[in-house]
Design a protein that fits this description.
The complex is a heterodimer of chains A (about 775) and B (about 140). Chain A is α+β, with helices and mostly antiparallel strands and about 775 residues long. Chain A has six domains: about 140 residues, Up-down Bundle (Four Helix Bundle (Hemerythrin (Met), subunit A)), CATH 1.20.120.160; about 55 residues; about 140 residues, Histidine kinase-like ATPase, C-terminal domain (Heat Shock Protein 90); about 150 residues, CheA-289, Domain 4 (OB fold (Dihydrolipoamide Acetyltransferase, E2P), Beta Barrel), CATH 2.40.50.180; about 130 residues, Beta Barrel (OB fold (Dihydrolipoamide Acetyltransferase, E2P)); about 100 residues, Rossmann fold (3-Layer(aba) Sandwich), CATH 3.40.50. Chain A is built from 23 helices and 34 strands. In chain A, strand 6 and strand 7 form a beta hairpin. With about 140 residues, chain B is an alpha+beta fold. Chain B is about 15% helix and about 50% strand. Chain B has three helices and ten strands. In chain B, the strands form two sheets. Chain B has a five-stranded mixed sheet. Chain B has a five-stranded mixed sheet with strand order 3-6-7-5-4. In chain B, a hairpin with a 2-residue loop joins strand 1 and strand 2. The longest helix of chain B has 12 residues. Chain B is globular, with a radius of gyration of 14 Å. Classes of the chains: A alpha+beta (about 775), B alpha+beta (about 140). The interface between A and B is medium-sized, with 31 and 24 residues.
């Protein structure tokens, strides 16, 4: 508001100055239509701004003047000297009022009505300015204007000038270095250099604008939309003071609007649905911006229903966007990314608010066009967070530079997944037909030999190239084979001439500090020219090329806490993290990890934690609803393995054994793990089972089984609550009778003796569980 | 028509270009090649903080390739907001040439014909008046 007011004051002052001339001219010739029009425009503008800024006195004055002038314009009244005077008095009053505002004072009350009355067609004459106002004007000299308006074009020219200066400085620096040291010249040059750098920074800042301008439209939009959809939404905006390039603000306006609309329309549920899922009736939408290095992060988070990646996948399958084979290989994040696929809308019904599936793909394309990225993170039932990362200025993008032959090229860093050596241990390049394919950690990635594609001679010896693994915005993932990687640089990118763009492989040109132009590679264009297709289309083609290839599942191999090598299906692994050992505790009968404010059951180790300087590495596994943690010693590798394995006889933490190379590897049974976690997460109104706490066997071995069967465990002698069932040893008599509805007696030997008639052998798991279930059913 | 013409030599031929279109004449030292681009795009060069797209006038006129030894002169023109440098053997003169260009009655090779606007007379010699935009468009576009 403060800023808007400042702008209003500056603007009013600015228009008042030339208006003074117009007023005098109008006074001399009241029939002059052009003058009349410009005065009318002035009061009209003031009136509009006042209504918005809540300045009722000014609004009233300007409104009165506007109506009279409108009458004059329509010919209903003829301007006479008295009317001209009255209008002038009002304009003067507006000027005084604005000055008072600028000085932060309140303009003395009263006098306005007299001015307004004087406008009427009557005998009342506009009063002379009140002595108070005059005195004020004299005592408070007008504060000099602190802001001016400039055409953006001028700023652009200054920017270009400064860029020239930087290049000239660089050349001078090179020449000075060649010439050899003259301390005095060097010092002077250093000073010049610092000045230039400072200048460059301040000129860059002239193009910066607070993101407030972008956020200010959101409250209204959220209000209107939520009213329309009968939802209650609380909007929290943060980080409005973050600055970014004004052009950038324009570029992210549409994507941001779209994401917010989506959140309101599809994300946040209606009050009834929210209440049903135990959430507050009012949904929360958070929009915040923050700066991180040269990037601006804008996060849009809602606490709505989240995105169901399985549903998304089913939709994508139905729409033919992915093949079934591909679908099986997708991990959760990849499935989520489907929301950015063209022609996929998650809403059950197309609504007027978010339109028809022409949304997120366009959002991503727009953000990527300005060198940014969009990330999605969702938790089913809990909400969705989208993060836009955009460079601070439109023209400067972070890039990776690399050499091919004798030339350097750049590629937007956002598109680069990873960089590997083609001759490294984990990478193998093989030729399929005529096309090279790299196998990187078990995954096959098509290789595009940039030197060959561009028709230049590569300098790296065959088989010694660097692979830059690139993910193009259109979804293709491939490895760009280059001679050597040079540097990470922030580059000023300009559009290239049409003849250069026509090649389809370049995104623009850039001039690094060495003054030699460089081409920016367009990852999507290269994919197209090289004939690399998006994975969905590419996989069947690959399968044709290698008919013998079997279907595989990406699988993570790791060394477990007990040093055994185990495997887990990658699709369930959401993250691998190092957590503080102190975050793990044995509570409620099992090891649990407190992580990000949640408590997750921890599997994979019993007591001995693989403690590395107080840190424990865990796999965070998720099946969409339940999250569990699995402690490991270290990650070994990711392999694409055949889906079949040798199952174990009994259900348990290990589903079976599979062969990786020559090593037998236990495959973790995630079905079982999640089953366990689900059992543990049962509500606390479980029946109580009393055990003999003095018996370590019962305490440590029996107890988990009892808990799995759906009981709470209590200890004999604790008393209080009546237990649903008590488990006793058949051999040792209880110290005191246990207050329990039913009693299960366990014996230590497999054979039933007379003394232990009706008891259950203590390792007869099925018998025990059946007895426990029966006891629960009896209640 | 009464305006200034820039007279330059391309492949030994003296030609005229309307000086209106010309921003400056620069000497180009290093050219960054642009792989895959049309043959008449010689590459990129820097003009202070701006990037020039260098056009090989020989190739654009279907005359082979411009010699690229040492420092080469280029005529800087702006077409559709993009800055181009047209490589020439040498810039000879700037002269006011009066009179409308005469239509061509000579059978010109395809390359020249595609870029020529007509004939102008300067110091009793006939010069081809070339259109920079057509040189930039290249041999294919000019022939079409």
């Amino acid at each position: 508001m403060e800023e808007l007011l400042g702008e209003f004051i500056a603007e009013t002052r600015e228009t008042l100055e030339p208006l003074a001339g117009e007023i005098v001219a109008w006074e001399a010739d009241p029939s002059d239509r052009a003058r009349l029009d410009s005065i009318f425009r002035f009061v009209h503008t003031v009136k509009g701004s006042c209504g918005f800024l809540d300045l009722p006195r000014l609004e009233k004055l300007s409104h009165a003047a506007e109506s009279v002038l409108a009458e004059v314009r329509s010919g209903d009244r003829t301007p006479d000297r008295k009317l001209v005077n009255a209008v002038l008095a009002i304009i003067d009053r507006i000027g005084e009022y604005v000055e008072a505002l600028a000085a932060g004072e309140t303009y003395p009350e009263g006098g306005d009505d007299a001015l307004i009355l004087a406008l009427e067609d009557n005998e009342i004459v506009a009063p002379e300015p009140t002595p108070a106002a005059v005195a004020q004007q004299q005592s408070a000299p007008r504060a000099p204007a602190r802001s001016i308006r400039l055409p953006v074009e001028l700023l652009d020219r200054m920017m270009a000038g400064v860029s020239d200066m930087v290049l000239a400085r660089n050349e001078l620096s090179r020449r000075l270095r060649e010439r050899g040291g003259d301390a005095i010249v060097d010092t002077a040059f250093e000073r010049l250099s610092a000045c230039v750098a400072e200048m460059r920074e301040s000129i860059t800042r002239t193009r910066m604008q607070r993101i407030d301008g972008l956020f200010s439209a959101l409250p209204r939009m959220v209000r209107d939309l939520s009213a329309e959809l009968h939802k209650q939404i609380h909007l929290i905006i943060d980080g409005g003071d973050v600055e970014l390039d004004r052009e950038m603000i324009e570029m992210i306006r549409d994507p941001l609007t779209h994401i917010v609309r989506n959140s309101i329309d599809h994300g946040i549920e209606g009050a009834a649905d929210r209440a049903a899922s135990g959430k507050p009736a009012i949904g929360t939408l958070r929009v915040d911006a923050r700066q991180s290095g040269n990037q601006i992060l804008i996060e849009i988070a809602d606490d709505g229903r989240g995105i169901d990646d399985e549903k998304l996948l089913a939709k994508a399958l139905a729409a033919g966007l992915v093949t079934r084979e591909r679908a099986q290989r997708m991990d959760r994040q990849e499935r989520l990314e489907l929301i950015f696929a063209a022609g996929l809308s998650t809403a059950q019904a197309v609504t007027a608010i978010s339109g028809r599936g022409v949304g997120m793909d366009v959002v991503r394309a727009n953000v990527e066009r300005i060198g940014g990225t969009v990330e999605i993170d969702t938790n089913l039932g809990r909400g969705t967070r989208l993060t836009l990362r955009v460079p601070m200025t439109l023209t400067i993008i972070p890039a990776l530079t690399f050499a091919v032959g004798s030339e350097l090229f750049a590629i937007p860093r956002g598109a680069v997944d990873e960089i590997v050596r083609s001759y490294g241990g984990s990478v193998e390049v093989e030729t399929v037909g005529s096309a090279p394919v790299a196998r990187i950690r078990g995954e096959r990635v098509p290789v595009v030999e940039l030197a060959r594609l561009l028709g230049v001679e590569g300098h790296a010896p065959a088989g010694r190239t660097i692979l830059v693994v690139v993910r193009a915005s259109s979804g293709e993932r491939y490895a760009l084979s280059v001679d050597s990687v040079q540097d990470h640089e922030e580059l000023v990118v300009k559009p290239a001439a049409p003849a250069i763009m026509a090649t389809g492989v370049y995104a623009g040109t850039t001039l690094p500090d060495n003054g030699r132009p460089m081409l920016l590679i367009d990852p999507a264009g290269v994919a197209q020219v090289a004939g690399v297709r998006a994975p969905d289309a590419a996989i069947p083609a690959k399968a044709e090329a290698e008919e013998a290839r079997v279907e595989t599942v990406p699988t993570l191999l790791f060394r477990a806490c007990d040093q055994a090598v185990r495997a887990i299906r990658l699709s369930l692994v959401e993250r691998i993290e190092d957590v503080a050992a102190s975050a793990i505790a044995r509570v409620g009968g099992r090891l649990r990890l407190s992580h990000d404010g949640r408590i997750l059951p921890l599997f994979g180790c019993d007591a001995a934690m693989p403690d590395k300087d107080g840190r424990v590495r865990v796999l965070l596994l998720g099946d969409g609803t339940t999250e569990i943690a699995y402690a490991i010693a270290e990650v070994i590798d990711i392999h694409a393995l055949a889906p079949d394995f040798l199952p174990t006889a009994e259900p348990g933490p290990v589903a079976g054994v599979m062969l990786v190379g020559d090593i037998q590897v236990e495959l973790v049974d995630c079905f079982w793990l999640f089953g366990q976690a689900g059992a543990a997460a049962r509500p606390p109104e479980r029946p109580l089972c009393v055990l003999d706490g003095s018996d370590p066997w019962m305490r440590d071995i029996l107890r988990p089984i009892v808990e799995q069967a759906g009981y709470r465990v209590g200890w004999s002698g604790e008393g209080g609550e009546a237990a649903a069932v008590a488990i006793l040893s058949a051999e040792t008599a209880p110290a005191a009778p246990l207050p329990a509805a039913s009693v299960i007696r366990l014996r230590a030997t497999a054979d039933e003796t007379a003394a232990s008639a009706g008891s259950i052998y203590r390792y007869d798991r099925h018998g025990l569980i059946a007895a426990l279930a029966a006891a629960q059913g009896r209640r | 028509m009464d305006d200034l013409k820039l007279i330059a030599r391309i492949a030994g031929q003296e030609v005229a270009l309307s000086a209106d279109a010309v921003e400056s004449v620069v000497e180009i030292e290093a050219i960054t090649p642009v792989p895959l681009a049309a043959t008449h795009i010689a590459g990129l060069a820097a003009l202070r903080s701006r990037v020039l797209t260098i056009v090989d006038s020989y190739a654009a006129l279907d005359l082979g390739r411009s010699p690229r030894d040492g420092v080469i002169q280029a005529i800087v023109v702006t077409i559709d907001n993009h800055l181009y440098g047209l490589l020439v053997d040498e810039v000879v003169d700037v002269a006011a040439i009066t009179g409308d260009p005469q239509p061509l009655h000579v059978g010109l090779a395809r390359g020249w014909a595609g870029a020529a606007l007509g004939l102008v007379e300067h110091q009793d010699r006939a010069l081809l008046l070339l259109d920079p935009a057509r040189i930039v468009a290249g041999p294919l576009a000019a022939a079409a």
